[in-house]
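Escalated from tier 1: nicotinamide-adenine-dinucleotide holo job.
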Amino acid sequence: MQYDVTVIGSGPGGYVAAIRAAQLGMKTAIIEKYDVLGGTCLNVGCIPSKALLDSSEHYYNAAHHFAEHGIEIEAPKVNLGQMIARKKGVVEKMNNGINFLMKKNKITVYNGFGSFVDKNTIKIKKADESEEQITSEKVIIATGSKPTILPFMNYDKKRIITSTEALNLTEIPKHLIVIGAGVIGAELGSVYARLGAKVTFVEFADSMIPTMDKTMGKELQKSVKKLGTDFYFNTKVTKIENLGEEVVVSADGADGKPVEIKGDYCLVCIGRRAYIDGLNLEAVGVTTDRGKVVVDEHTLETNVKGIYAIGDVIRGAMLAHKAEEEGVLVAEIMNGQKPHINYNLIPGVVYTWPEVASVGQTEEELKAKGVSYKTGQFPFKALGRATASGDTDGLVKILANKETDEVLGVHIIGARAADMIAEAVMAMEFRASAEDIARTSHAHPTYMEAVKEAALAATDNRPIHT
Ligand code: FAD
Ligand code: NAD
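Tier 2 regenerated the structure:
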């Protein structure tokens, strides 16, 4: 065989799997259909969206908060072209970083579309239509996902767009209609609302980010509303039309009455689907279920020996760090190690401001399972650090087992929640009790003190500062 392992797809799952396999001494190849490595996350996902979230937040603070801090400036103006150019620069820097890592680890990179000829042979079709075949002892499918689009949405990439186009707009929409108030809707809706667009969310469920703990959705909605946004909940979109300069969204409203919303752009973000198009999985007999590759729960091997799958293309949360953990796991399994992923402790983060971050079980899940639990909450407005910075929106909510005090879930909305959640993940990884966190010294004044105070509230209802 030419290679010990070949990875198809260079997203955070694929390139991390390739590096770990190479570290373990495997002769490794990676195939990517685009010219650049890094997948959805680096090129049209995590990184560019965070670059625009950061830029739009700087603008919003300059326009709305500098004066209260005693900083007087002329009314700032948005230069969207520069914001997008900066975002491209950020992505390019990281593309170069991955190229460097491939070279450093002696991983052979093939740019082209990979498909199975048989279980050990992969055909690579290049941009110039030429083809090459490589052979490999083992294969990892890491082909990721694409946005879900329904036919009645008339996706035209111009006015009816997905996250991919929303990261490259040439003008700020006057009125952006966002279909789906999930993670992408909340993040990219925030970007354009901060830059001055009117933003209207149309959501099928009864709250924003409906899969997270309900308290988070309720609190996030209050903060996002301050940007002048509107919401239609319990509303099912039935048609989206581009009438030239105008986009019209038709839906069945909460009270059963028809709803019609007019705007100039419509961002469709109703979830993503696993991407297995063109892989020719039939040739090798890899089993799929509703478009996802089916894998063994522990080894992530498919039903075909030697073929594994990781990341968005398999079951579970569609998150970059989940894909990375699975990439490492598969490389180690191939080398006889016995790694394990605790899927309950994969944190979820929404990079709005305030940020939302969550790990473990939600209150709704605990109720549904009949687990006996207790809750401790602490608001950011009672924190010295939050008062000093002016970031007083939000709270920390800790759910602990009523009998044993073991922490079962931590849900944070507030400044820097994305970084704060790491403490909760670590504590839960070591099966900490709420009292363990409550008795751990937290530096003052920090946002992290809210975690200690919420743990005090959960332990024995004895927070100090509320
Ligand atoms: P992908 O990153 O999708 O990579 C798959 C790669 O495979 C692609 O490069 C594709 O071109 C390639 N490919 C597919 N088929 C073939 C083939 N046949 N031959 C060769 N190459 C092929 N997650 C987070 O954790 N944090 C975030 O902040 C975050 N923000 C996001 C923001 C947006 C707007 C979006 C859309 C997603 C975001 N995500 C975020 C989700 C994250 O991007 C995905 O979970 C992650 O990229 C999945 O990694 P992956 O390796 O499974 O697949
Ligand atoms: P999502 O699942 O987070 O949200 C989709 C929303 O659309 C849901 O709230 C759903 O109720 C709603 N919806 C579905 N059909 C609808 C309809 N017909 N009309 C109205 N509303 C409808 O999906 P997403 O926001 O598209 O994001 C896709 C994936 O990308 C997510 O799984 C997420 O994990 C990942 N992502 C992660 C991050 C992050 O980690 N910060 C950021 C962006 C994306």
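The longest strand covers residues 131-141.
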